[in-house]
Specification:
mainly beta, 48% strand, globular, six-stranded antiparallel β-barrel, 93 residues
Length: 93
């Protein structure tokens, strides 16, 4: 049985407050399999998955915990000028 994914607001960025239980300091913290804590409008969202890097971006492939080989959604991770890290759902049409 597949788990139900937590709802995500389309087109909205979420602040990444933790990477594997610690505060992120640089984009280099986003490698391999990991757990992220995201915040938007005071609500925490826990996501687990794997990071893939390209020369232009960091992508996080959120996994279904019940079916680890299944991607739920893809997030783009960016660093802002104030050293805040954001995760935005990637819309591919």
């Amino acid at each position: 049985m597949a788990s139900t994914a937590e709802p995500v607001r389309s087109g909205q960025a979420y602040i990444i407050v933790q990477v594997d239980g610690r505060s992120p300091e640089s984009l280099a913290d986003f490698t391999g399999d990991m757990h992220l804590t995201l915040v938007r409008a005071g609500q925490n969202l826990q996501v687990t998955g794997a990071v893939a890097r390209t020369s232009e971006s960091v992508r996080f492939y959120q996994k279904d915990l019940a079916l680890p080989d299944r991607d739920i959604r893809v997030w783009t991770i960016t660093e802002q000028d104030d050293s805040t890290f954001l995760a935005s759902p990637l819309a591919a049409f």
